[in-house]
Write a structure and sequence with these properties.
about 15% helix; nine-stranded mixed beta sheet; AP2_Mu_C_sf; Immunoglobulin-like; 3 domains; about 500 residues; mainly beta; single chain; 7 helices
Length: about 500
């Protein structure tokens, strides 16, 4: 079992939660020592122990759990040598859940550890599984997974406040409120609610309005002009080798984010996703707990299984009663036939110089209209750049000798041929060493693409503005958008070695 991708942050919050056990374990600030606190629910842990029997895996000391999590995310031991469990390229990440391997005589595997990251915080949640441990049930069938993700998202919004990067004092004050907040929203180990961003501990619990019961995901009632904003974002990742003996890999991860400013305690909103006639079915669909009903076939399509041509292909209707704050309505993956940009990259040593040849081609199915498009060519483990004699067929080339980096700015359009090329030579005669990377030695090198295409998704999935239905006293203004972004989009030098991945990749 593998884990989801995380990014380096400066502050980490680790939270184990849900019916199984809940404890705020630590705040960790890189380079500094920070406060440490924890809380457990022995009665709930005893229930888990009774259910699991001989297969029960006890949670070790809090500091050990935190270290296991940081090691799994690759955020610790940066100065230590290679560790296969963490660094092996075959360590595939096919699931939004991590597993932590506990060593020792009473060791085992803690699963599923859900992790979310945005801004300066990383939060994790160990959810209880009311099902046999072997074989493991699909994540989409576990209510505790969606409930655990909802709890973490609520805690994250509370800690970050209105912005993605909270000020240090604001974050410290909210962290100090965590014990009382957790006492209210999760008094006995079962999440009952999520805190309102910017609220005080005394007002973290919502106050019911009218005769309708306030739902757990609703933190207040909107007053004013009604607006519904629905944004669909797809991120495409690719590993291209330019080698017949190695299969190129790519995948697509989509999210639908909503902000619904609609009056009423329980307004009803329905968002519909549609695919083109020949579009591939959406898979690995996860939804927000506020979604009231959903066709079971939507949740059963998994990318780790063989694709079934009979899988549900839409339209995908999501009826829900929205919270006030922006939230992720759903996420999904899609198996598209080709990546948007195909490329080849060749490096050759020639008289103490590197000869560089690059070609990129925009696929005909992709709109030739970018907000930005850049190709970065870094050169590691060499002296600082000397002379650079490189020509491009389109766009502009920027040279950063201090970083040993060539930035090919392709701009907003490819030429009519949809093909561009770069060719030339670079020498490394500087007096100072350039940047280093243990994976990129000699001719092992890559190009990394950065691009953004507005009003496009690679899967063809879209939200029709007229299909958004709102049942409220006031007719809202409806705004929809979609975009395609690159994420970890690599083209490796075909004349050198490169990391090899097997199986399906997942963001």
């Amino acid at each position: 079992m593998s884990s989801c991708y995380m990014y380096m942050c400066y502050i980490y919050i680790y939270v184990i939660s849900h019916l199984f056990r809940i404890a705020v374990l630590a705040m960790y600030i890189v380079g500094k020592s920070a406060g440490f606190s924890h809380r457990r629910y022995p009665t709930v842990e005893q229930r888990a122990k009774c259910m699991a029997g001989s297969l029960y895996v006890s949670v070790p000391e809090d500091g050990t759990v935190l270290q296991l999590l940081l090691t799994e995310l690759g955020l610790s031991d940066s100065d230590k040598p290679y560790m296969a469990l963490r660094d092996d390229c075959l360590h595939q990440q096919r699931s939004p859940a991590l597993e932590l391997h506990v060593e020792g005589p009473s060791g085992g595997v803690l699963w599923p550890v859900l992790v979310i990251s945005q801004g300066p915080l990383i939060l994790a949640c160990l959810a209880m599984v009311d099902a046999p441990a072997d074989p493991r049930p699909p994540l989409a069938s576990l209510f505790s997974v969606s409930q655990g993700l909802s709890l973490l998202a609520g805690l994250q919004a509370f800690l970050c406040g209105s912005g993605s990067k909270p000020d240090r004092e604001g974050l410290a004050s909210r962290l100090a409120m965590m014990p009382s907040i957790l006492l209210q929203i999760c008094p006995l180990g079962t999440p009952l609610d999520i805190p309102q961003p910017g609220a005080s501990s005394a007002s973290a619990m919502p106050t019911p309005a009218g005769t309708q019961k306030q739902p757990a995901w609703k933190t207040g009632v909107h007053r004013g002009r009604a607006v519904v904003n629905v944004a669909l974002t797809e991120m495409v990742r690719s590993m291209q080798y330019g080698n017949r003996n190695r299969q190129d890999l790519w995948d697509v991860y989509g999210t639908v984010t909503c902000k619904c400013e609609v009056e009423g305690v329980l307004p009803n909103v329905t968002v519909t996703l549609t695919l083109p006639p020949n579009g591939s079915p959406l898979m690995d669909v996860l939804v927000h707990p506020c979604v009231s009903s959903l066709d079971a076939s939507v949740l059963t399509a998994m990318s780790v299984e063989d694709c079934d041509s009979s899988a549900f292909s839409g339209p995908y209707k999501f009826p829900f009663s929205p919270p006030l704050e922006p939230f992720r309505l759903c996420s999904y993956t899609s198996q598209v036939p080709v990546p948007p940009i195909l490329g080849t990259y060749q490096l050759k040593n020639d008289d103490n110089q590197l000869r560089i040849t690059v070609s990129l081609k925009l696929h005909e199915s992709v709109r030739n209209s970018f907000e930005y498009c850049e190709a970065h060519l870094p050169f590691f483990n060499r002296d600082q750049m000397g002379s650079v004699d490189v020509k491009v067929s389109s766009g502009q080339l920027e040279v950063s000798k201090e970083k040993n980096l060539l930035v090919w700015v392709l701009g907003q359009k490819f030429p009519k041929s949809r093909e561009v090329s770069l060719e030339g030579s670079v020498s490394f005669s500087g007096e100072l060493p350039g940047p280093t990377d243990p994976l990129c030695a000699d001719l092992t090198a890559y190009i990394k693409l950065y691009f953004r295409v507005p009003d496009l998704t690679l899967s063809g999935c879209c939200v029709d503005q007229h299909s958004v239905q709102v049942y409220s006293s006031a007719k809202p203004r409806i705004v929809t958008s979609r975009e395609l972004l690159s994420s970890e989009y690599f083209i490796w030098n075909s004349t050198g070695t490169a990391p090899v991945s097997s199986g399906h990749m997942m963001l």
